[in-house]
Amino acid sequence: MKILLIALAGALGTLARWWISGAAQKAAGGVFPWGTFAVNMLGCFLFGAIWSAAEERMLIGPVARIVILSGFMGAFTTFSSYMFETAALMRDSQWLYAFGNIALQNITGIIFIALGFALGRAL
Question: Within the chain, where are the H helices?
Fold first, then answer.
């Protein structure tokens, strides 16, 4: 049953990623992959909050934690898309966008994980 729940959560995470990434990219426009950035930062924040709520506050049980973090969040975050888009920017000689993407996603990802931890602790 746990495997089925993880698979279902993964399917939902994939759909959420597709919708949020597309909506954010459409809203932002331009060459920079803002849709992937938005999903990655939201994913970092949610992962931090859920992990903290489960580990430190015991608000989420072990099975639910695995389903949410491995299933939903594993499909929701888009690190492989981030790497692919960065490589494509490099291939197209969009060096400023490529290195900006690397710096922005990594630095703000750490910040959003910390913010998520803080939220999880506050629950």
Answer: 2-28, 34-55, 62-66, 74-76, 79-91, 95-122
pLDDT by residue, tens only, the chain of 123 residues? 999 999 999 999 999 999 999 999 999 999 999 999 999 999 999 998 998 888 888 888 999 999 999 999 999 987 888 998 999 999 999 999 999 999 999 999 999 999 999 999 998
| Alpha-carbon distances, residue 1 vs 6, 54, 67, 111 (angstroms) | 9, 21, 11, 35
* Sequence letter at residue 84: F
Q: How many CA atoms lie within 13 A of 5 on its CB side?
A: 10
Residue 58, token pair as written in the block: 């015991």
Q: Which residues of 31-44 are buried (b: 16+ CB within 10 A; e: fewer)?
A: ebbbbbbbbbbbbb
Residue recorded with tokens 């992990």: 51
Write down the domain spans for the chain: 2-122
